[in-house]
Amino acid sequence: MPDSDTAGWRRRERPLRLERRLEFADYEQTRVFLEHSESLSEKTAIYPNMSFGRTYVNLTLFADEGEQDIAPAVRAFAERVDALAGADRVSVP
């Protein structure tokens, strides 16, 4: 699932994490995505590191300290982020 480059998420080591960059057509789409991802974080208590500009958002989801793999809840969060982004509104460079 998100460990695969083809799914848009990249697994990185030291520290163990998943990373993804989402690109949007305009600021309005970026803003809507950020608002929805905020709601998702509040519901799941998973808060990714995020940086963004007018037409992009970079996300990083870290594994819990000392864990050897990404937790199922974090993987589920990544899947929900993908659904929020919507394939028709987002490109993955």
From TrEMBL:
What is this protein called in UniProt?
Pterin-4-alpha-carbinolamine dehydratase
What is the top-level taxon of the source organism? Bacteria
Task: State a single Gene Ontology molecular function.
Answer: 4-alpha-hydroxytetrahydrobiopterin dehydratase activity
Single Gene Ontology BP annotation:
tetrahydrobiopterin biosynthetic process
